[in-house]
Design a protein that fits this description.
This protein is mostly beta strands. The protein has strands at 4-11, 15-23, 47-53.
Length: 76
């Protein structure tokens, strides 16, 4: 019921290009984060969606039909 939560986009394992964070609301209240950005990638780049929390205990991400962590990218 304490701590912060982050969703981050990271390029090539080192460079963070977007971060969305929230302070825990406590108890059974879910933390919902959406992170997005526009970024110009090179041909060999790869992108990771990184979740982070610092409550001091293990937390789970919810994954179920029609409600789960999603990641997508579009080429413009």
């Amino acid at each position: 019921a304490t701590g912060v939560r982050y969703a981050q986009l990271r390029v090539n394992g080192t460079t963070y290009i977007a971060i969305q964070g929230s302070v825990s609301m406590g108890g059974a209240v879910a933390t919902i984060l959406t992170v997005e950005t526009d970024y110009e990638f090179a041909a060999a780049d790869y992108v990771e969606l990184v979740g982070y929390q610092d409550s001091g205990g293990a937390l789970n991400m919810t994954a179920s039909a029609n409600y789960s962590p999603e990641f997508w990218i579009a080429r413009l």
